Amino acid sequence: AFKLDEIFFLLPSYSGASGDNFEHFENVANQMKNLFKINDEVMKLMVMKRLTGVAQIWSVSLQNLMTMNLQELFRSMKEVFSVKTSSLELYKRLEKRKWNVRESFSQYCVEKQILAMPLLLQESELIDYIVEGIPDTQLRNQAKMRKFSKVTDLRSAFALIKLQQNSSRISVVCYSCHQPGHIAARCHQDYQQYSRRNQTSPRGNLIGTVDDMQDKLTELDIH
């Protein structure tokens, strides 16, 4: 019988970089599994411990990693890292991925980053692909105007924004008069009237709607 710590390093590390061959890594893992009669769960843990670099970052971003079996893990890795997938196909997948109403902007960014990993893009290029995947034209243009240099800054700026189903309108209400359709900086109501109202009415929340995207982005501190 073999001890796992004695055979662990027979499995090569895998970084997901362009020089690494995923098929070779998968074949060695399966051969070790059969030769040493290692069960799937233990082999999966060994595979995960041998991931480095981009591949390791990719693995920890998977929400269902712990429930995957060994073959499901290999299939997911193959979709992302297999050398049989052409660069053109990877770029198409990256361009096709759009932000949708069922997810937060942060979730969308993570998925986009995972798709971009095999392409080894510069951060500025990745930001361009993330921005182009924003379906709302006005939001997309505002993101371009900001000229973000870091993905983390882009994610923070859009953290509070949620897409509306079949609409580019964002909910907002004036903090002064509590009426929808504008922000306090553009409120035309008399200040004294607002003061009287404010004594009996709590400050508004983001519950109205507005067509003016500049108002929306000003309210959310996106200039």
Automatic annotation (TrEMBL):
Q: Does the keyword Zinc apply?
A: yes
* Domain CCHC-type per the UniProt entry, residue ranges: 174-187
Q: Does the keyword Membrane apply?
A: no
Question: What GO annotations for molecular function exist for this entry?
Answer: nucleic acid binding; zinc ion binding
SUPFAM superfamilies from the xrefs? Retrovirus zinc finger-like domains (SSF57756)
Keyword terms of this UniProt record? Metal-binding, Zinc, Zinc-finger
Top-level taxon of origin? Eukaryota
Annotated membrane-spanning segments are none
Q: Please give the name of this protein.
A: Putative gag-pol polyprotein
